[in-house]
């Protein structure tokens, strides 16, 4: 096994198990639809809240998707193979997380113009929202992979992953929605994007190693 | 500098015997200090010129909030110690302290809500400090939940250590992000670098009750750790001797 063959397999598995990704995306859509139905469908409410709704739905969808990230590999024993493969486990985890991220983010971005229109997101802030999603979601996946790895041996880990990971997601949500809001108000938002990027870089440095430790402990 | 004391901490047996005589005095001293500080603060300290008598809840609110943060710091550091040195005592410490820290965070939240009603006119505001203590409480609950759901001890040790370390790294980020997001709360009561803004008759009892709560929590933690050591080492000879010493 090489790194290249590993990432190829990852994408292949994701492609053949499309339904998992679809489920996360459908969940995202359901959450977004709930807000106009449950709170208020008028543009007075939706326009200023649109970025927050989209981000909350994204976080929930990612938590859904990430929980099962290692499940299959754990039950069929391929996680153990990864541990003893002689390759760097942290790097493998990083590659796996990247594959998962791309699989969820790309369709999410494709849906974004439609959803932004449905939620009356002000035109000027659309691209800022896209940028926050692109540089914000990697942190969510990286941090979330730690939680998924910690709970991989549990049958019902979904609720636990949410409880464990939600506090760590707060900074990302705050910086992302503040950036979009600042853009709506015509304030400078590059600083907030920089903070978002900083959180991403920090999680990039820490998360793969922590995930590898958790995987090693879980597979013993 | 000799590191023997540090290596000795790796042995549950040594730790058990060392801490046995320490827990009760610490706990007792803490109780007395806390009671002294509370009585002084509630009954004898001068009234606040702005908030009147309602400020007196500070004598329980601030110590609890400080302890909630300190417990998490200790949790994160011992998680790091476990990941680096594989010290057996570290996960025992985490397991013992996490529920205590959660109670402290809850106490800070509840007393803060009670204090908020007369001063801000509301039980809860989405203010930076309140939110970060709430997040701290959730972090504690996550650690406790993870600890309880993993049945395998070695895995639970590792998992809890990992999440504590990640939490320790993230806590400042969470705190500052929330701070920029919204701030209404008054500034910190105690800082190490500056003189407190309140008169001595007000902050001395606060300091005493804080020290008291620290000692109380330390004693409590040692007790809980001893119990956990006995449970985990129940197969070893020294535990059998220890338990049988006073007869069954």
From TrEMBL, chain A:
Signal peptide: none annotated. InterPro entries: Cyt_c_biogenesis_CcmB, Cyt_c_CcmB_bac. GO terms for biological process: cytochrome c biosynthetic process; cytochrome complex assembly. It comes from the Bacteria. Keywords: Cell inner membrane, Cell membrane, Cytochrome c-type biogenesis, Membrane, Transmembrane, Transmembrane helix, Transport. It is a multi-pass membrane protein. One of its GO terms (cellular component) is plasma membrane. The chain crosses the membrane at residues 21-39, 45-66, 78-95, 127-152, 158-180, 192-215. NCBIfam families: ccmB. This is Heme exporter protein B. It comes from Marinomonas ushuaiensis DSM 15871.
From TrEMBL, chain B:
Residues 14-185 form the Cytochrome c assembly protein domain. One of its GO terms (cellular component) is plasma membrane. GO terms for biological process: cytochrome complex assembly. Keywords: Cell inner membrane, Cell membrane, Cytochrome c-type biogenesis, Membrane, Transmembrane, Transmembrane helix, Transport. It comes from the Bacteria. Pfam families: Cytochrom_C_asm (PF01578). One of its GO terms (molecular function) is heme binding. It is a multi-pass membrane protein. Belongs to the CcmC/CycZ/HelC family. Required for the export of heme to the periplasm for the biogenesis of c-type cytochromes. This is Heme exporter protein C. It comes from Marinomonas ushuaiensis DSM 15871. The gene is ccmC.
